[in-house]
């Protein structure tokens, strides 16, 4: 008799890893994404198709798997919301960097053209606005091939009136003995703090 040789039935499935985790889900098949034997076919690839894929093959003897990474590139574009905001002293402010394109490797922020350290998230927050926070804020996104940026402006609200001395005093020459009162009246918002100095040394109330 002649022996008949048969191969164990081979099956294959494709999975995609959830971004930022080791979890994976089966690739949903539809009119655009098809599997022919062990080949995964993606028509008209989109940015959201990017990621790490896993192919798992099995038969009655055992199984094997292999990973691959798909990167669908798209031109970078950025925008900042809001483009202009007016905030009062002590109030919070926030800019959000809206961006498109792929891949985006880094996000950074600048203020008036100078890098702001330790700010690499899409949202830029200021817990309590101060006078020096006024200016232009730029969001910059980059990858190995290109970059894109957008800007938003932070203006100061009506509660930012610089200190103004309303009433002061002139030089005086006195004989020892009598009391003399120096008057200094200032305005501003927030209310300015008044300090006195004698020959460059700051005076305290007890002196």
What is the ordering of alpha helices and beta strands?
Answer: EEEEEEEEEEEEEEEEEE
CATH topology of the largest domain: Immunoglobulin-like
Calculate Rg over CA atoms: 34 Å
**Total E-strand runs:** 18
What is the first-to-last residue Cα distance?
120 Å
Structural class call reads: mainly beta
Helix content: under 10%
CATH C-level class of the largest domain: Mainly Beta
Shape: rod-shaped
Mean pLDDT reading: 87
Strand percent estimate: over 45%
Biggest β-sheet description: 5 strands, mixed
How do the helices and strands line up, and which of them pair or pack?
Layout: E1 11-17, E2 24-26, E3 33-36, E4 39-42, E5 51-58, E6 63-70, E7 74-81, E8 84-87, E9 93-102, E10 106-111, E11 114-115, E12 123-126, E13 135-142, E14 147-156, E15 161-167, E16 185-189, E17 197-198, E18 201-202
Parallel strand pairs: 8-14
Antiparallel strand pairs: 1-2, 1-5, 3-4, 5-6, 7-9, 9-12, 10-11, 10-13, 13-14, 15-16, 17-18
Brief overview, please?
By secondary structure, the protein is mostly beta strands. It has strands spanning 11-17, 24-26, 33-36, 39-42, 51-58, 63-70, 74-81, 84-87, 93-102, 106-111, 114-115, 123-126, 135-142, 147-156, 161-167, 185-189, 197-198, 201-202.
């Amino acid at each position: 008799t002649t022996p008949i040789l048969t191969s164990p039935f081979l099956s294959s499935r494709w999975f995609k890893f959830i971004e930022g985790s080791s979890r994976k889900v089966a690739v949903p098949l539809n009119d655009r994404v098809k599997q022919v034997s062990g080949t995964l076919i993606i028509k008209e690839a989109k940015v959201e198709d990017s990621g790490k894929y896993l192919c798992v093959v099995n038969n009655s003897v055992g199984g094997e798997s292999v990973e691959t990474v798909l990167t669908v590139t798209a031109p970078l574009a950025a925008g900042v919301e809001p483009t202009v905001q007016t905030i009062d002293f002590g109030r919070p402010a926030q800019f959000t960097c809206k961006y498109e394109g792929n891949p985006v490797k880094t996000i950074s922020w600048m203020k008036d053209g100078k890098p702001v350290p330790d700010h690499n998230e899409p949202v830029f927050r200021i817990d309590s606005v101060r006078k020096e926070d006024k200016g232009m804020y730029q969001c910059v996104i980059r990858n190995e091939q290109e970059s894109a940026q957008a800007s938003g402006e932070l203006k100061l609200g009506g509660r930012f009136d610089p200190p103004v001395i309303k009433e002061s005093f002139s030089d005086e020459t006195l004989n020892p003995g009598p009391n003399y009162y120096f008057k200094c009246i200032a305005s501003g918002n927030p209310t300015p703090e008044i300090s006195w100095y004698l020959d460059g040394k700051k005076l305290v109330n007890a002196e």
